[in-house]
Design a protein that fits this description.
Blueprint: H1 15-20, E1 29-37, E2 42-49, E3 54-55, E4 62-63, E5 66-79, E6 82-94, E7 104-106, H2 121-145, H3 152-161, E8 172-181, E9 185-192, E10 197-202, H4 207-216, E11 222-225, H5 229-238, E12 243-246, H6 248-264, H7 267-285, H8 302-331, H9 336-343, H10 347-355, H11 376-384, H12 390-399, H13 406-421, H14 441-449, H15 457-469, H16 471-489, H17 495-504, H18 508-519, H19 521-527, H20 535-550, H21 557-566
Parallel strand pairs: 2-6, 8-11, 11-12
Antiparallel strand pairs: 1-2, 3-4, 5-6, 6-7, 8-9, 9-10
Helix pairs in contact: 2-3, 2-21, 4-5, 6-14, 6-16, 6-18, 7-15, 12-13, 15-16, 16-17, 17-18
Bound molecules: zinc ion.
Length: 568
Amino acid sequence: MPLHKEASAFVTTPVLTFLTRFLPDVTTLALEAWHVDDAATQLTLHVTSTQACVSCPCCHVQTPRVHSRYTRSLADLPWGAYHVRLQLRVRKFFCDNPACPRQIFTERLSTVAAPWARRTTRLSQLLNAFGIALGGEAGARLVARVGLRTSPPTLLRLIRAAPVPDASTPLVLGVDEWAWRRGQRYGTILVNLEDHRVLDLLPERSAESVASWLAQHPTVLVVCRDRSALYAEGIRRGAPQAVQVVDRFHLVKNLREAVEAFLHNQRAALQVAAACTAQALTLVAGPGPVTAMYRGRRQCSHVEQQRREVEQQQRHAAWVTTYEAIHTLHAQGTPVATIVQQLGISRPTVYAYLRRATPPSPRSPQRSGQVLRPYMSYLIRRWREGSTDSMQLWRELRALGYGHSARTVSRFLTRLRRASEAGWAPETQTSSYTRPQGPSARAVSFTWVCPAAKRAPDAQMYVDQLTQGDPTIAQAYTLSQAFLTLVRERRGDALEAWMTEAAASGIEALARFAQGLQEDLAAVKAGLTLPWSNGPVEGHVNRLKLLKRQGYGRADVGLLRQRVIQAA
Ligand SMILES: [Zn+2]
């Protein structure tokens, strides 16, 4: 019946007809009565099943004979602040099939709820989605905000019980490790590289577990992996039919490590290039004004200076001790995993130390640049305008939102003053490529393998200075760029020619890298030819780190596996 001339869409309907629309499945359920408890903010719906034909879950023969009725109570999706509960009258039936072992059975309502569930299927699915996305604790908190009642353990139970999607029949597989506990315990992640979905999470990183998983999935034709002999062995045993492909990301990573090892022995050249970069930057920007520095009342005392030096020496001594311990253990044939446990350091650290031919050199204390970085260009502009009072500049920065100490500002101004006195542009002080001791070999190696188009201007300037200053470095640079071109353009056909050149170059780190490629030649060549890469796997490994953190260290492999596989 129309309420109003203009709003003819509004109608008054009997309440039962209206509420029926919100039942989980109107084709099998009928609403008979409803009750609201305002004190408990609860809406209770009395519902009966209207299924005409019911078949036995055991023999699937249909039967009309009702044995009895009973009531199930199911929680359903809430309506605003009101919890909704279904009081569901269901029937028990006789199975009249004489061949069936069941005599009496309860009717199934597959679209409404699982046989023994206390919640409707749609409520379980919603809770499960919260759990998959957020984990137990955060999931339960957000669930409470939308008016649902649950607890973290309940959410976790739902995640564990949820059915895992069919593991399909993958053709192209990506395999990689993931850190269950960094440096101590690693697992294996398996990703379908065609649809980028996680297929499985194995609790260990071993040839056996990969081999047995592959044996159960004989459809796999291509497996993309890192450089580890462990996975190579596992794949060979579990899927001898599959083509092994070395992931290009890992090839570039190995090249960068070789470059870093090479640069460790070029300390002097790295330092000279830093000074040349500062000069080149000064030519571009022009030298700054030479100004007498306003000296604040607080100066770094002699005692303070000494304390810092002692600290630095202690830190350096610890590095040397670690270096010697690792090399000694390694020379004795101790496996890396054992070294990790004995010394309590991470696996990547052990490898980094093993790549070095000499102990790390002492480093001067870290520059305190990070908090100031967004304000450096402002300070340089003011400096060029003749403002040298650090307290004044600190007040100006505070007005711009800087929340750190005046001392950090004053230290940066000291650097600007020293640079000016040396005839360098103040701009040189914003770059890590111009510091007096030079950038670290590690930092330069990252710039070195980064595509030239993506390098910052000062980084490019530094690479130019470094390669112009030394023919051996120039040769190493040309060789590694040639390899990167093979990777980017997927020129597997030119790989062996490159390896011959690297082996004959006299650059030990690159020759060793080429030797490593030789040992895994077929898979490396496939990596430089086929389109597959483990990019999607890396994405999932990063997401795993997030999931682990959400579990506050309490999540186990079973739970992580469910969350990572079910999250679409
Ligand atoms: Zn039956």
